[in-house]
Amino acid sequence: DIRQQQTQPLNALLCGALIFFATQLYLIIVVFDIYDFNTRGLPFVFFSFLICSLSLSFATIKHFLIERDAQVAAQQSKIAQSEAHDALLQERLALQEQARSDLEANIEERTFELQVTLRELEEKNRALEQINMEDPLTKIKNRRYFDKKLVMDLRRSRREQTPLSIIMLDIDHFKSINDTYGHLIGDDVLSMVAKVLAESIRRNDTLVRWGGEEFVLIAINVDDKTLFDLAEKLRYQIEKNTYGFVDKVTISIGATLFRTDDTKDDLLSRADQALYEAKGQGRNRTIAL
Questions:
Q1: Which mean pLDDT values do the consecutive 10-residue runs of the chain (289 residues) have?
Q2: CATH number of the domain residue 283 falls in
Q3: Are residues 247 and 187 in the same domain?
Q4: Which candidate in 113, 213, 214, 277 is catalytic?
Q5: Is residue 105 part of a domain?
Q6: How far apart are CA 272 and CA 215, in angstroms?
Q7: DSSP states of the chain
Q8: Same structural domain for residues 272 and 180?
Q9: How many CB atoms lie within 10 A of CB 30?
């Protein structure tokens, strides 16, 4: 580590100094063996070598200390640079984390706005579909809805072998009502007839405005007698009701049961034929085929 690196020059210096002192001592002994110095010159020579040795040792020690200080300074500089780098890295990481948090918050906000927009769009689509499937005058379902509903009911009737029938209703002498009282009163009569019919049918039956003064009812789970009784109930409810300025309103009805080999057109054509016969026989009556 750093402490070990700092003590390495000093250890080397001490080893070098000991070796140097040993060498000096050895040289003194050799010199005295070669030259016959007297005992009075011995201290001078010894101290001369000693001074030289100390001077050299001091210079060496100073050199090693300077080198050690340089190494320590370099290590401290590296540590400072590393700490500065770590601080910069932490700062960058903090900025990245903040940016990520901001991005997640922005995504959540946009997702919520998108969900709200989608719900609003779905509600508008449902409202638009309701408008497209509803007669604006009478507020009951229109012919577009009837076409889809009849296809589904015919499939279910074939699949489950359950009876299904069509009842066509037409307001008698409606042209005379418009000519006598005006089209506004005629519209009121249409609305009131639709309201009486809607309140008189069963919960699972489907009433639509076919067009003009005609209405169509899809009735399920009825046999011949039940079909006729249901049609007569509707005719009676219309006849007994009051319609403001118009004294009396009656309807003619044509009804028919679905047969296994029928197409949708076959079923509607037979109901329309029954309605035509009801009108031909004097109106305000029910004909079932």
A1: 51 61 62 52 58 64 73 79 80 85 84 80 70 88 93 92 95 94 94 95 93 94 91 95 90 94 93 96 94
A2: 3.30.70.270
A3: yes
A4: 213
A5: no
A6: 11
A7: -HHHHHHHHHHHHHHHHHHHHHHHHHHHHHHHHHS---TTHHHHHHHHHHHHHHHHHHHHHHHHHHHHHHHHHHHHHHHHHHHHHHHHHHHHHHHHHHHHHHHHHHHHHHHHHHHHHHHHHHHHHHHHHHHHTB-TTT-SB-HHHHHHHHHHHHHHHHHHT--EEEEEEEETTHHHHHHHH-HHHHHHHHHHHHHHHHHHS-TT-EEEEEETTEEEEEEES--HHHHHHHHHHHHHHHHHS-BTTBS---EEEEEEE--TT--HHHHHHHHHHHHHHHHHTTSSSEEE-
A8: yes
A9: 10
- What does pTM read for this prediction? 0.60
- Among 247, 228, 111, smallest CA distance to 176 is for 247
Please, are residues 170 and 252 in contact by the beta-carbon 8 Å criterion? yes
Q: How many domains would you assign to the chain?
A: 2
Per-residue pLDDT, 107:
87
End-to-end CA distance of the chain: 109
Among 80, 96, 112, the domain boundary falls at 96
Q: What is the residue range of 214's domain?
A: 143-288
The confidence score (pLDDT) of residue 2 equals 45
Examine the residue annotation and report whether 213 is marked as an active-site residue of this protein. Answer: yes
170 part of a folded domain? yes
